[in-house]
Amino acid sequence: MIGDVTMGDIEVEKEYDFSYEMFWKTDVPDKEYVGLISFGGDVGVTEGLISNSFSLLTLHGAKLGHGEFVGCGTGLKYDFSGAVKLPVFLAAKYNFLNEHLSPFVDFHIGGEMIFKERSRGGALIVSPAVGVDFSTFSLRVGYLCEAGRYVEREYEDDRIYIKNDILMKLHSVSMTLSYYF
């Protein structure tokens, strides 16, 4: 007991709880659905290849309680070199606080299909990040590694001639702004 409050003839005891439950995510229902839509971009340079892209992604999953989230996502990325990328990934996230302003760490891993005018390919994507949730929005800043292969093709008289077999490994800084629904 920390304090007593007296109201006339009625004496009321008031207790204060300073346990970890006051600060950590403990009131999150088990397996609550969460969806979000993200807008963002990536900027990177690797071996002289500049990669700048704009992305529109959606992520769906479940809060598991105490700040944990797991889900999967997909979307559309447009690389300013003319490539369109379709990523599919798994996501894991941990929020540290149960407040309107909560820092987090997260990790995405998956793959993407790459389509360009005369080329097709695929890549593995890995993206650890840190960020902050504020109300129904989230800001995420992270590292993005895309490692894969695509083939540039040349068509002539209804035949396919392989022009270049390109291995790529791009390192980028990514930033996204998300809205939870």
Terminus-to-terminus distance: 41 Å
Measured as a percent range, the helix fraction is under 10%
- List the total number of helices: 0
Tell me how many strands there are: 10
| Rg computed from alpha carbons, rounded to a whole number of angstroms | 24 Å
Describe what this molecule looks like in 3D:
The chain has no helices and 10 strands. The chain is elongated, with a radius of gyration of 24 Å. Strands 3-4-5-6-7-8-9-10 form an 8-stranded antiparallel beta barrel. With about 180 residues, the protein is mainly β.
Task: Provide the descriptors you would attach to this structure in a database record.
181 residues; mainly beta; eight-stranded antiparallel β-barrel; two-stranded antiparallel ribbon; elongated
Give a brief outline of the structure.
0% of the residues lie in helices and 77% in strands.
How are the SSEs ordered, and which strands pair?
Blueprint: E1 3-7, E2 10-14, E3 32-46, E4 49-65, E5 68-79, E6 84-95, E7 101-116, E8 119-134, E9 137-156, E10 159-180
Antiparallel strand pairs: 1-2, 3-4, 3-10, 4-5, 5-6, 6-7, 7-8, 8-9, 9-10
